[in-house]
User: Fold this.
Amino acid sequence: MALLAWMTDVTDFWEGHKEQVRYVTKPLKMAWIMSGVEAASQLQRRWEQSRNVAAARGVYDIRRYMGALPGNRKLSELIAEVLKSQRIQGLYKQPWKWQQTLAAAMKKWRIPGANLLKNPPGAGMFARATLPAAVVTGVKEAVVPTHEGAQGWVDRGMGVLQAGGAVAIMGGAGMATALGASAAVAAAVPVAGWVALGVAGAYFLGSWAWDNWGDEIKAGAGKAWEGTKSFVEKFRFW
Assistant:
């Protein structure tokens, strides 16, 4: 009942502020997509490195269990893999690469606002203002989707994904820790949240573009196809 009441409150908030929320979230979807791509790369690197750490620790533990001295070499290998894993996890404490590149360009061309891009993912006033907006629009799509029929159900699923991703970014690590997850898993939850937000952002941005320019896209594709057929018929030699 509490969840239903909360979702109703979010829907009511959307109806009263939908133009303002759209104005905030629509341009952000490109940022979410770029962040999601980087987050997916970080998750992949974390997963691969966790396997390397497990393998090095396994060799070290086996040698110790069998009574053999682990040796400085094996111990050094384990320490090196652990440190590499920590460096990969530390990437999330830095701004995304696209933020760093854009901020450098803005400073070079003396465009104001570069300081808004200096914070790590999910931190700063900008994130604290936009991530709740992602929750609101995601819940709205889950409850009252933009489209009808089969696409409406896709809207619902993507709305849940978007809202869940934003929640994971804002507090997923703490919730995972409270549920007994390991430190590594808890630290990966916000990164996974960015991946979810990027996927949902790509879907909703593409859906919005199709709704607004779908007829022009189809008309252009039809003209291109007719032009191709005409070219082939004109120059064919069989």
Observations:
- Residues 3 and 162 are 17 Å apart (CA to CA).
- The chain has six helices and no strands.
- Residues 2-235 form one domain.
- Residues 2-65 form the longest helix (64 residues).
